[in-house]
Amino acid sequence: MNARSESGVLLRDIAYSRSGDKGDISNITVIPFDRSDWDFLVENLTTERVAERFAGLVTGRVERFEMPGLCALNFVMYGALDGGVSTSLRLDPHGKSYQSVMLDIVLPR
Predict the structure, then answer these.
(1) For 24-75, how does the pLDDT look when each residue is reduced to its tens digit (9 = 90+)?
(2) Model pTM?
C-alpha cells in the first residue's frame, strides 16, 4: 500500500534513491519500490519539481532521463556541488545527502 494522503505522497514512502557526483554535477537516481508506481513517478517527479526542491543548492539546469526497463528516473543537476569535491567548502562536497533531500519531495495525489 502506497503512503498517499490528502496532501500528497512523500517520495521516500514509494521509492529509494542513489546519488553520485562528477565535478560540480550531482546525479540522483530514483527507483520505485513497486513497479506499479512507475507511471505516477514519470508524471509527477518533474525536473521543475526537483529544481524547486534544490533551489539554493543547485545553480544550473536539471535534466531527467527515463529508464523504463529499470523503472528508474535519473536526474542530473549542474552547478550542484559548489565547484566539486576539490574546491567546495560544503559539509557534503560529494552531494551524497542529496538523495535524502530528493526523497523529502511531496508529490501530488
Answers:
(1) 888 999 999 999 999 999 999 999 999 999 998 899 999 999 999 999 999 9
(2) 0.85
Residue 95 lies in a domain: no
- List the alpha helices (DSSP H) in 5-74: 38-44, 47-53
Task: Quickly tell me which residue has 529499470 as its cell.
Answer: 70
User: For 8-18, what is each residue's pLDDT tens digit?
Assistant: 999 999 999 99
Between vectors from CA 96 to CA 79 and to CA 65, what angle results, nearest 5°?
60
In a domain, 89, yes or no: no
Question: How far apart are alpha carbons 56 and 68 in whole angstroms?
Answer: 30
| Any domain includes 56 | yes
Amino acid at 59: T
Domain that holds residue 68: 9-82
Length of the chain: 109
Give me 4's grid cell: 498517499
Phi, psi of 88 (to 5 degrees): -75, 140
